[in-house]
Batch of 3 targets.
Target 1
Amino acid sequence: TQVSQDHETMAQVLFSRNLRLNVALTFWRRRSISELVAYLVRIQDLGVVVDCLPMLTNSLQEEKPYISVGCCVDLLPLVKSLLKSKYEEYVIVGLNWLQAVIKRWWSELSAHTEKVEDGNVHILKKQLSGLWEQENHLTLVPGYTGNIAKDVNAYLLQLH
């Protein structure tokens, strides 16, 4: 009875996650990135975020035009939750995304002018600094996680 009860619970969890991932995939296929981000923010399911964020990270690294600074600003609270996770995979996904965001908009972020064309760049810069003040301890983690955190840290230190 105990085994079958646990099996039923796990089946429900996986079914729910599969449904959420299919909705996210629909937005992705339509290139409705702002709708995808709004959906991720609305459902607050970090498992689904961890499954979707690598696609967004790759698109940022490839400098695809359909991911805006505004979408990144909206995703930052979810990424902050990933960085606080007890699961190293979640932390790594969050750090990889942060690294891609910083590199993608580095010229805008590092510009020493108050007249930034896009107000979201100013918001992103401010939020990144605030986030990193709380999460810079990740640079002390050994291995791959710490190495990504050190790279993020090196960029963000230049913004002050």
Target 2
Amino acid sequence: GARGGPAGAGMGLPAAVRDRVAAVHRGSALPERLRLYDGWAARYEQDVAALEYRAPHLAAASLSFAFPAPRAEARLLDVACGTGLVARELHRRGFRCLHGVDGSAGMLEQARSTGLYQELRLCVLGTEPLPAPAEHYDAVTVVGALGEGQVPSTVLPELLRVTKLGGFLCLTTRSNPSNLRYKAELEAALGQLERIGAWQKLLAQEVEYWERATTEEESTRGTGYISGVVYIYQKCPVPHLEEG
């Protein structure tokens, strides 16, 4: 019958999971989207497990590779931390001083229950500044939130502000069709900051199997998965002006 269609994208994903994912990616207004995340929080981790969502693992692995030892003392800010998936991966790699911010109180409640964060704050990125002084963090991560209808690419200078000179920024975005316009905007903004010497690019890693697609149209070449990208940047130390 209708259920036994081709085993393509999103098939084998429960319809409820597909609907919840689609709902947060639809360009709804911010208050509505934050309410959706609040409501999703309790089921979020089992849903992303069903999606085989690899971004937290890939991002943490890339950041660890770039990051100089020792890690235990390094202060990290996990932006749009959600339920703490990224913190779990960072913690496994020896990072111990983790702060998180998210726009959803429901998500922060889940993150708090992991016990992995020293500090958690409510912050709606893109409409308010990060709750941190300048040059406060050794690294800043934004995994999964930079996308169409989510966090605007205009937040990059604010991420840079709270990063120490020589500190690292780990960002991800998706490369599926409905996010390509956003991705182009993001890459233009990343490149602009590089040209003015604000940071330098260490890595831009395209990953084919990022997570399972929720629709056929979003799938990469019929694989049933969407692709994504991990970026690592290092904030440039202020160049000393030569005398004379």
Target 3
Amino acid sequence: LRFDEKVRVVVFKSEVKGVFCAGADLKEREKMDDAEVGLFVKRLRNLMDEIAALPVPTIAAIDGYALGGGLELALACDLRVAASSAKMGLIETTRGLLPGAGGTQRLPRCVGVGLAKELIFTGRQIDGQEAFSMGLVNHTVQQNDEGDAAYQRALTLAKEILPQAPIAVKMGKLAINRGIEVDIASGMAIEGMCYAQNIPTRDRQEGMAAFREKRPPRFIGK
């Protein structure tokens, strides 16, 4: 996906009705020794980092349970859409664990330190409406009979992104992701560097021409 220039947006969904991702198989985990658990979680953390580092926008369509590592997967995405009936939580502390695939870092960056601590310390599960109210998800929708309401809303959101200039969108994502980790002055410098990469693109010239000619732009990602 990272190197496929035809890919504009990636939507993560489940093929299992009522479940986005239920997290680790604790029966499997129980059979591992300490070293195996450490390696397993390290690989899982690396996977989440790879997803977060995808250059194109990513959307998690949460149509059911997103627990533990399942919520960490959703947090690794740029945007999240949830059915109001979905259940989400970093439930690790209820099993003698703590989030190990990015949850302790991405959740506070998403909802703030206080709420993240409360959710992680208690292991509480929340529904889609609660998640929306605290900013954990971008949109919440009523579940439909097919059980894919969040996916359908995610597709609508993806279709809003598709017509925009691909390189500009990628540079925007990069500027936000890098800039949020540093002070504002350094962030402005990062934005400047990302903007500079976009200046010589054919898409920028197309955008200007389309505005002048009062027509929709035709971006090609070049």
